[in-house]
Amino acid sequence: MSNLNLFNTILLMGVIHGFLLTLILIRIKNRSVKSNRLLALFILLISLTMVGRLLSETKIISAFPNFLALPDAIIFLYGPLMFLYFRKLLVQESLKTKSVFLHFVPAIIFILSEIPLLFDDNHWMKILWREETRIRFILIEGLAIGHNVFYFILNRNMALAYVKISDNNFSFKQHPSYLKAIFILTALTLLIWLFSYLSWVTGNYNLLSVIGYRMVWLILAFTTYILGYFAMKNPDFYKMTTHSKKANVINKDERDTLLDNLDTLMSKDKPYLDPAFDLQVLSELLSINKNKASQLINSEFNKNFNDWTNDFRIDDAKELLSASEMSIKEIYYKVGFNSKSVFNDAFKKRVKTTPSDYKSGG
């Protein structure tokens, strides 16, 4: 491979890594099997796309050079596959076959639009396709960018809805930092892609535009690394709890009793010291269902479960920071946090200063 430069080398490594991850994800048993299969399909498609790009870059195949544009169908597959992956992972719901098919119609149309390129050079459709290449790609790429922006917004809204439900059911974060990383990478990809596209359309195509298009490929490759790494590290990280939509009415007498029991429970037993303390545990301790426990917290304290629980932990942490020689790490573990960054964020949100400054200031 005489054309195996740094860019192509990264693509080649991405291809090898992608195929290996696909095999490993498929072989994982009893651990988020369905969502991992979607992730495996997603990584496989990106890997195959990178193969096509690599063959085009290195000019290994010249018999059907135009056919190598087919792997670019990934531009219409990225958003829908991420949507199905997040939906299965976060909402744990599957769409009907007809609904799933509709998400892939744009990709199918794109593939069909490339078929004339396989015809004989004298075929009228191939001649037309070649003559109108610029207009055709302006239209296709413009639609692809809009398509991906739509799915970016859709996926982000689904993730935000999950975060809201998570914060109201768990005393620890159920949404890992890698979700934010994925959305940042996707947003960055879309911005660079849009810049390169507009530069090409307006005739201002330059070195930065070329680099921009290549950056899209590199970011796409790094996205698979991030997804694969976290999926292998902890495939069961996401656990979406089921909720009954049936409303629960709490009368005054029951409310007073529950608040007394809640006060006794939190001040004496301190169940929040366990990092795994969640709404399910609280409802069992109070002998009520989760919806009623959630309603009680939200209506009486005007906070979600996560913030309400962390208030108790922060109060304990403040006492320990002021009156003990324990390290900050020892303190945040003792009061129920399992992450320094989460503890720092929660402490600063409540006390308006960092744990270190609070400790040094007495």
Structure, explained:
The chain has 362 residues and is mainly α. It contains 16 helices and no strands. Helix 1 packs parallel to helix 9 (207-233) and helix 11 (279-286) crosses helix 12. The model is unreliable at 235-247 (pLDDT under 50).
Characteristic terms for this protein:
362 residues; mainly alpha; 16 helices; 0% strand
SSE inventory with pairings:
Elements: H1 6-27, H2 33-58, H3 78-91, H4 97-103, H5 105-114, H6 124-131, H7 133-167, H8 177-201, H9 207-233, H10 252-269, H11 279-286, H12 290-301, H13 305-323, H14 328-334, H15 340-351, H16 355-360
Helix pairs in contact: 1-2, 1-9, 2-3, 2-9, 3-7, 7-8, 8-9, 11-12, 13-14, 13-15
Concise structural overview:
The protein is an all-alpha fold and 362 residues long. It has helices at 6-27, 33-58, 78-91, 97-103, 105-114, 124-131, 133-167, 177-201, 207-233, 252-269, 279-286, 290-301, 305-323, 328-334, 340-351, 355-360.
Residue fraction in strands: under 5%
* Mean model confidence by pLDDT: 77
Helix share bin = over 70%
Structural class: mainly alpha
* Main sheet characteristics: none
Instruction: Specify Rg, calculated over alpha carbons.
Output: 26 Å
Query: Total helix count?
Result: 16
The first-to-last residue Cα distance is 65 Å
Overall shape: elongated
**Elements, N to C (H/E):** HHHHHHHHHHHHHHHH
Number-wise, the strands total 0
* Unreliable segments of 5+ consecutive residues: 235-247
